[in-house]
Amino acid sequence: MKEAVREAISALHTDLVAWRRHLHRHPELSYQEYATAAFVAEVLRREGVEVRTGVARLTPDAEGTGLIAVVRGERTASEVCIALRADMDALPIQEVGKPAYCSTNPGVMHACGHDAHTAMVLGAGIVLHRLRELWSGHVMLVFQPGEEKEPGGASLMVKEGVLNNPKPACIIGQHVTPELPVGALGFRSGPFMAAADELYLTVKGRGGHAAQRDKLVDPILITGKLLPLLYEAVERSAAPGEPRLISFGKVIANGATNIVPDVVTIDGTLRTFNEELRAELHTMLLRVSKEVATAMGGSVDLRIVKGSPVVKNDPELTARLRAVAVDLVGAERVVDMDIRMGAEDFAYYTHVMPGCFYRLGTGDPHKPGTQSGLHMAAFDIDEDALGLGATLMVMGALNELRG
Asked: How far apart are CA 387 and CA 372, in angstroms?
């Protein structure tokens, strides 16, 4: 079976690259993936694969931009189902480089590899369909929107119940990474990626002329005192070694050289691996913020948008998939990953079924952009990784179906 899969993936390599480049040229932001979903559906339907579109609706009256496809094995009757997941959305970044396939949508690019994820699951599904006489069971292809935006598209797929017919026994996902070279794969059993919450603080004071400080309650001054105390409070909130992190990436004080504003807004993120600590930090952040602002004559509002939970890689599934990876590329190219403070809405699937989320190496020091970090304007991948990613998804699914 392995050689049949490798030959089928090799024969599809030109298509994998073409699909990825098409998607890269035409990126769409979260919950706007209409053309992306239509493209994926067209390719699958042309192959004869059953497709359901319009799922993962952001609001009840919205048109869903997610889709589900089911590939059915024909060797013997079996109701076992395995899911393979891809995310489809892009980021609001102006791309640089890649003249052959640069984004044609100004200010939007696939800077996180979702174009590659989609192409690889698409390729895996087509190969499984072409080899359907050799295996039994079902493989569900999950193409979700909105991984980059709350609420994560995975949460909507779960909430709508679109993964219940047929219901997968487990789900497999992958993410490209420039940290590993092409041909390498990274695994971690158990907690892998952090729970993520969005923080929105509004610091309120009394603004006015900058030369009349005796009449002001300066929200900028309050903010200047508050931020380091919040960082320090989170650092001291748990025992050493307990992963947690707070960061602020946006501060707006819309005054002028001689104008102190009434309000400062601050946006940030909180990352944790412990649900009990997560709840405690929510309470603590509000308490510290109010104490500081009140002591300085102002006030503060804190809105917390609770995001994805922790990605929990099922130990047994991860061990089996890791063994498949070793068989494909050799033990020296399969590495153990550390926990990551980054978040992934694949987490929602792992809280309702066994899941494994692994890393696919796409870095090559000799190819421009492939060493660039995720979410950066120059980000690119070595497309030689597409075949391996698709192959591992196929072989991982078949290994589970045989079990």
From this structure: 21
Count each helix (H run) and each strand (E run) in the chain, helices first: 10, 16
92 in the same domain as 7? yes
Sequence-separated (6 or more) residues with CB below 8 Å from residue 224:
none
**Rounded to an integer, what distance in angstroms lies between the CA atom of residue 306 and that of residue 94?**
28
- How many other C-beta atoms can be found within 10 angstroms of the C-beta atom of residue 267? 14
- E strand or H helix at 304, and its extent? strand 299-306
* Nearest residue to 277 via CA among 233, 311, 314: 233
Residue 87's CATH number:
3.40.630.10
- Rounded Cα distance between 403 and 400, Å, is 5
Query: Is there a catalytic annotation at residue 262?
Result: no
Q: Using 50, 70 and 90 to split pLDDT, how confident is the model at 97? A: confident
Look up residue 150 and give its two tokens: 């709350």
Kindly name the residue from 33, 87, 89, 148 that is annotated as catalytic. Answer: 89
Q: Which tokens sit at 350?
A: 């792992």
> DSSP secondary structure string, 357-371?
EEEEEEE-TTSTTTT
| pLDDT level of residue 403 (50, 70, 90 thresholds) | low
- Whether residue 400 lies in the annotated active site: no
Q: Which helix (H) or strand (E) holds 141?
A: strand 138-144
| Residue tagged active-site, from 87, 147, 218, 382 | 147
How far apart CA 134 and CA 74 sit, in angstroms, is 7
Q: 135 and 68: one domain?
A: yes
**What distance, in Å, lies between the first and last C-alpha atoms of the chain?**
15
The pLDDT tens digits of the residues spanning 311-363 come to: 999 999 999 999 999 999 999 999 999 999 999 999 999 999 999 999 999 99
- Whole domain around residue 203: which residue ranges? 196-306
- Residues recorded for the chain: 403
Number of domains in the chain: 2
What is the distance between the alpha carbons of residues 48 and 130, in angstroms, rounded to a whole number?
Answer: 10
Out of 306, 328, 349, a domain closes at 306
